[in-house]
From TrEMBL:
GO BP annotations, alphabetical order: mismatch repair
SUPFAM superfamilies documented for this protein: ATPase domain of HSP90 chaperone/DNA topoisomerase II/histidine kinase (SSF55874), DNA mismatch repair protein MutL (SSF118116), Ribosomal protein S5 domain 2-like (SSF54211)
InterPro entries: DNA_mismatch_repair_CS (IPR014762), DNA_mismatch_repair_MutL (IPR020667), DNA_mismatch_S5_2-like (IPR013507), HATPase_C_sf (IPR036890), MutL/Mlh/PMS (IPR002099), MutL/Mlh/Pms-like (IPR038973), MutL_C (IPR014790), MutL_C_dimsub (IPR042120)
One GO cellular component, as annotated: mismatch repair complex
SMART domains: DNA_mis_repair, MutL_C
Protein family membership: Belongs to the DNA mismatch repair MutL/HexB family.
GO MF terms held by the record: ATP binding; ATP hydrolysis activity; ATP-dependent DNA damage sensor activity; mismatched DNA binding
Residue ranges of every copy of the MutL C-terminal dimerisation domain listed in the record: 452-595
Protein name stated in the entry: DNA mismatch repair protein MutL
Domain DNA mismatch repair protein S5 per the UniProt entry, residue ranges: 212-330
Length: 639
């Protein structure tokens, strides 16, 4: 080959571009479907043959392509979607590169037929603009694009195609994602002349949930929580699975930014962090979430396949997602579940095993149960609670000045111990009748988790509820209640720090050392004191007492690496929570410890008032409800 420089032929340029965006039939389907949506289609029909290798035909009822533009559609860098850099920075459409059709045309036999309103239909065939052959055709309003024999002229690529079934599965995944991204669009999918899916336009919540059931399965929707969270210019809404519906793989995570599906490590990190406290180790959350924000706040021009985006205010977005999802998870309370279960009974009249994992609309915990709690309190049962933050918790300021000597540590430790022993110290000599409401006026006055009836096998609390009965794992439940209290106390009070006898020297890159200096406020809020001891070194002088035994150097390194990647880090909090979690676990009532009925009722009321009380700290459920319907079924009553 001579070393003289030559201009590449058009087709080769397009084929190289195709290498980036068209990996397999599924990628063609993604590009074509995005074009349909950009054209405002409300109905899309997809016909596939042989996993897409032989034929992909997609028809839409969108605005169509002008007759004079048909050849241009096959030309590289030709698009109707952006005209200037300013357009690009405020892009609302899914496409903007003007590359998909010419790329696909260069590696397949492609035909476009299109008709605009008040115009005739035309057809274009060809590899590129120059070879485009335009002729009249018959077609309704909209566009059909047919892609035959994908990779017929790129044998190296064809070899990478997997079996028909595998390719079709990939393709179906793409269609599902598009179906989730635009509920209002009807989509049908046929494979080898067989109807595979038909999603009718879903305009109300019920039909949207039905679409989610078809994509994610029934269990997901039954065990998820719908959520919506807004801040200025930002909105996140959708469905998040309750922690008890976690997955072994990160395979049920749908995240859309302004209608575009994306995979983004910042997003994944923020969501993981929100689930951190309630997810069983090594499990992955499931979700279908839609983030809406001003298009100017996100750069979609980050990758040719547009799977990745860059948030201009990444830290703010991270924080927003974390807060929204964390709050939604914290809002799941027993009271919500009861409302749902009652409704389910009325609506369907069918039996249902009401798990503590039903889909709920967030509600506040009603105050009407406080009477019961007061009754329990006044009659002698002490709540197994930590002293209130305003009471005995010392309040010092965070950070450098927080250290006031070792007494504080023992003070904190004492309080935690008190908390841990609280149940053990509960008075045993209580008269049970004092704590059982004597007459229950009507079912509206029964708290969501009902009133305890008995303890089973030293492990479970059996409680009668308005809808039936609840079985509570008392260790798991108490563990969560204790843990949430300790966290709350820590947040309201002070994180006590202690200086290290010998400061720890940490060698890092200059960038990390600078960042550590910049973020010294953040570190001191979390009880760390760091000194820059050289261009590439730091000294850790002080750590929170609760982390005295943790690997401070590793924590600091990990926090800095998080800050570099995500602009945010929760590691120190996580480490503190892990210690609290262990304390709570050891401090929670153990199996085979007899609880009196009043003690059990106190625990039930505590659960109702505690965030995330549906799961223990390890993500296991803490309680399950059986409705009367279910029980009637067991005994064939009323059948
Ligand atoms: N189904 C369709 N309905 C109406 N117009 C279409 C359709 N598909 C493509 N077009 C027109 O053809 C043009 C080229 O499409 P192509 O997908 O190649 O580029 P793009 O969508 O503009 O950008 P990208 O390469 O990022 O997808 C589009 O800008 C659009 O005007
Ligand atoms: Mg496009």
């Amino acid at each position: 080959m001579s070393n003289r420089i030559q201009q590449m032929p058009n087709q080769l340029i397009n084929q190289i571009a195709a290498g980036e965006v068209v990996e397999r039939p599924a990628s063609v389907v993604k590009e074509l479907l995005e074009n349909c949506l950009d054209a405002g289609a409300t109905k899309i029909d997809i016909d596939i043959e042989q996993g897409g290798a032989k034929l992909i035909r997609i028809r839409d009822n969108g605005q169509g392509i002008h007759q004079d533009d048909l050849a241009l559609a096959l030309s590289r860098h030709a698009t109707s979607k952006v005209r200037s850099l300013d357009d690009l920075e405020h892009i609302q459409s899914l496409g903007f590169r003007g590359e998909a059709l010419p790329s696909i045309a260069s590696i397949s036999r492609m035909t476009i037929i299109s008709r605009q309103v008040e115009a005739d239909a035309y057809k274009v065939q060809g590899q590129d603009e120059q070879s485009a052959d335009i002729s009249p055709a018959a077609h309704g309003f909209g566009t059909t694009i047919e892609v035959r024999d994908l990779f017929y002229n790129v044998p190296a690529r064809r070899k990478f195609l997997r079996t028909e079934k595998t390719e079709f599965n990939h393709l179906e995944d793409v269609v599902k994602r598009i179906a989730l991204s635009h509920f209002d669009v009807e989509v049908s999918l046929n494979h080898n002349q067989r109807a595979i899916k038909l999603w009718r336009a879903a305009t109300d919540l019920k039909s949207q949930e039905q679409r989610i059931v078809e994509v994610c399965g029934k269990a997901f929707i039954e065990q998820s929580q719908s959520m919506c969270f807004e801040a200025t210019n930002l909105k996140i809404h959708g469905w998040i699975a309750l922690p008890s519906f976690s997955r072994s793989q990160a395979d049920m995570q749908y995240f859309f930014v302004n209608g575009r599906i994306i995979r983004d490590k910042l997003v994944t990190h923020a969501i993981r962090q929100a689930y951190q406290d309630v997810l069983y180790h090594g499990r992955h959350p499931a979700y279908v979430l839609f983030l809406q924000l001003d298009p100017a706040m996100v750069d979609v021009n980050a990758h040719p396949t547009k799977h990745e985006v860059r948030f201009r205010e990444s830290r703010m977005v991270h924080d927003f997602l974390f807060r929204g999802i964390h709050k939604a998870l914290a809002d799941v309370r027993p009271s919500d579940i009861q409302a749902e279960s009652n409704q389910a009974e009325h609506n369907q009249g069918e039996s249902s095993l009401i798990k503590n994992t039903l889909d709920l609309t967030p509600a506040t915990v009603p105050n009407r149960y406080s009477d019961v709690q007061t009754m329990a309190n006044t009659s002698g049962a002490t709540l197994p609670s930590v002293p209130s933050a305003s009471g005995s918790m010392q309040s010092t300021s965070f950070g450098r000045s927080a250290y006031t000597g070792p007494t504080k540590q023992s003070h904190l430790a004492l309080q935690v111990n008190e908390q841990i022993k609280a149940y053990a110290n509960l008075s045993r000599g209580l008269s049970e009748t004092n704590h059982l409401p004597k007459d229950l006026p009507d079912s509206n006055d029964i708290p969501p988790l009902g009133f305890a009836v008995a303890q089973l096998h030293g492990i479970y609390i059996l409680s009668q509820t308005a809808a039936g009965m609840v079985v509570v794992d008392m260790h798991a439940a108490h563990e969560r209640v204790t843990y949430e209290r300790m966290k709350q106390q820590l947040e309201q009070g002070t994180l006590v720090s202690q200086p290290l006898l010998v400061p720890i020297s940490v060698n890092l890159s200059e960038k990390e050392a600078e960042l550590a200096e910049e973020q010294s406020e953040l570190f001191s809020e979390l009880g760390f004191e760091l000194d820059r001891s050289g261009p590439e070194s730091l000294r850790i002088r002080q750590v929170p007492v609760i982390l005295a035994r943790a690997d401070a150097e590793m924590l600091v390194r990990d926090v800095l690496s998080d800050l570099i990647s995500y602009g945010n880090s929760n590691r120190i909090r996580e480490a503190i929570n892990a210690v609290l979690g262990t304390m709570a676990c050891h401090g929670a009532v153990r199996a085979n410890r007899n609880l009196t009925v009043p003690e059990m009722n106190v625990l039930l009321r505590d659960m109702e008032n505690t965030e995330r009380s549906g799961q223990c700290n390890h993500g296991r459920p803490t309680w399950t409800e059986f409705s009367l319907d279910v029980m009637d079924k067991w005994f064939l009553r009323g059948q």
